[in-house]
Amino acid sequence: MRSKDLLCLVLMAGTLLAQPLRLETMQGKTVMLFTPHPDDDTFCCGGTLALLAKNQNRIHIVIYTNDDKGSYDPEMTSERLARIRKAEEEEACRILGIPKENILWLQYHDGMLEYANPRDLVEQVTGLIRKYRPDAVLSIDPGSENVRWHKTDHRMAAMNTIDAIRAAEWHLYFPNQRLHQGLEPWKVPAEFFYYVTPKEANYFVNIDSVVETKLSAALAHVSQFPPAVERYRPDWDLARLEKMKAALRARAPKRDGHYVEAFRAASGFSEQ
Ligand SMILES: [Zn+2]
């Protein structure tokens, strides 16, 4: 082979390698999703998660809070609600193809994440990123208007995760993790931020093939929908379930006639 041909091949290979990671086609990779509550992962990215699971990727769901406040039922207690929410999340993940062993609960109380010690929180998540060494991280968008105006846990989870992504690649941040736990630095190659506003989204996943799976997973969060949110019951009335599913389907975001999930894709600290 002539040296010019070889050079062309090397350049082509370099271009291919530089292609940004596509969530729809990645296989056998490790993905971490950080979510403020046990349901934001389903609502934002259930279709994408189902596709990732189908393609034999290892998915780790990290849930900041135990969601122990979201009920209007006067009989409900925080402890009971946390147990209910855990079971509902496990069922939603099962539907999406993610085993419950892959769910990590950080167990902060609902609505209280912003009052956790920020240094401890970023250290904790930095350690998880160094442990699992994900090829891609999905997290709530730190630049979105949704974060500025949404509830406390969403703001904190968005900022904390991006701060931990930054810290994880530098060995001088939290060097105790390397010394005592053998956790080496890890640079996250690709980030996909969800709950992004339409004008800020730059990446769309076609979820046509798994939209019904996503809706079923969303409706596994029974306690978060009426009537269970007002007076808890563990199951759906079948007619009501179908009605709610139809309502969610009608509201599901579409682009060019296809069901999609929208993200802000980024690598390093810059948008793609
Ligand atoms: Zn939430």
Task: Report the helical percentage.
Answer: 40-55%
What average pLDDT do the residues reach?
Answer: 92
Which class of secondary structure composition applies to the elements? Answer: alpha/beta
Q: Care to count the β-strands?
A: 9
Strand content: 15-25%
Series of secondary-structure elements, N-terminal to C-terminal: HEHEHEHEHHHEEHHEEE
Bound molecules: zinc ion
Low-pLDDT ranges: none
The 3D shape can be described as globular
Radius of gyration: 20 Å
Q: If helices are DSSP runs of H or I spanning 4 or more residues, what is the number of helices?
A: 9
Question: How do the helices and strands line up, and which of them pair or pack?
Answer:
Blueprint: H1 3-17, E1 30-35, H2 40-54, E2 58-65, H3 78-96, E3 103-108, H4 118-132, E4 136-140, H5 145-149, H6 152-168, H7 176-181, E5 190-194, E6 203-206, H8 211-218, H9 238-251, E7 254-255, E8 258-267, E9 270-271
Structural summary, described in words:
This protein is an alpha/beta fold. It is 42% helix and 18% strand. The chain is built from nine helices and nine strands. The protein has helices at residues 3-17, 40-54, 78-96, 118-132, 145-149, 152-168, 176-181, 211-218, 238-251; strands at residues 30-35, 58-65, 103-108, 136-140, 190-194, 203-206, 254-255, 258-267, 270-271. Strands 1, 2, 3, 4, 5, 6, 7, 8 and 9 form a nine-stranded mixed sheet that branches. Strand 8 (258-267) and strand 9 (270-271) form a beta hairpin. Helix 2 (40-54) packs parallel to helix 3, helix 3 (78-96) runs antiparallel to helix 8 and helix 4 (118-132) packs across helix 6. It is globular. The mean pLDDT is 92. Zinc ion binds next to loops.
